[in-house]
Design goal:
With about 200 residues, the chain is mainly alpha-helical. Helices cover about 85% and strands about 0% of the residues. It is globular and about 50 Å long.
Length: about 200
């Protein structure tokens, strides 16, 4: 090839490669924004970010976990509506049943609990870090628009955030009611994460 034409031709190849890469990134971003599961998680983050914190770990953990569980239930209901895999539908129904019951326990706790002194702002800092980590992990996922697969992979991240926040409550909390709930959530959702990851491996 004539040397005069090499540089423009090379530049065209580079531009084409960059354009293709940018288009792929844009398409993936569109898929994330179109994912009903991601929308639910982003709405949950907005709610949790704007909620007024008492800086009492037990009280804030309970109110935040209600919102966290409500999002998980919405994701599970979406799976029941649009999924096709019976194993994932059963998992979704189990999540709805268990987390509705836990929401009732958290609401009963906050109804009879007044925020206590001294304040512990460190808990809210750790909790916010955990939620940001969840969204970062979810953003790194490849959204397939396959309802069952996307439900499973994003629920892994959602459950991990619940575990991380529950572990923070065990560190900073002062009430046995919330500590018991936190430990139960850790145990239960670790088992569910293992089952979800096993399913993802089998259904790539």
């Amino acid at each position: 090839m004539n040397r005069l034409f090499r540089l423009p031709f090379f530049a065209l190849l580079v531009f084409s490669a960059l354009f293709t890469a940018c288009k792929m990134d844009h398409d993936m971003d569109d898929m994330k924004h179109d994912s009903p599961y991601m929308k639910i998680m982003m709405d949950m983050m907005s709610q949790m970010d704007t909620q007024v914190k008492t800086q009492d770990p037990d009280h804030d953990y309970a109110t935040q976990m209600v919102m966290h569980h409500e999002a998980a239930i919405k994701m599970a209901e979406e799976e029941l509506r649009t999924g096709s895999n019976q194993e994932m539908k059963t998992t979704a129904q189990d999540i709805i049943t268990k987390q509705r019951a836990e929401i009732g326990q958290f609401n009963a706790f906050t109804a009879g609990h007044q925020p206590m002194q001294p304040l512990v702002p460190q808990f809210n800092t750790v909790q916010k870090t955990n939620m940001d980590k969840m969204m970062k992990a979810s953003d790194a996922r490849t959204i397939t628009m396959r309802a069952d697969y996307d439900f499973a992979q994003l629920m892994v991240d959602h459950h991990q955030a619940a575990i991380d926040n529950s572990e923070a409550l065990l560190q900073y909390g002062r009430d046995n009611t919330t500590k018991t709930l936190a430990q139960n959530i850790i145990t239960d959702q670790r088992q569910e994460i293992a089952a979800l990851q096993n399913w993802l491996t089998r259904n790539r």
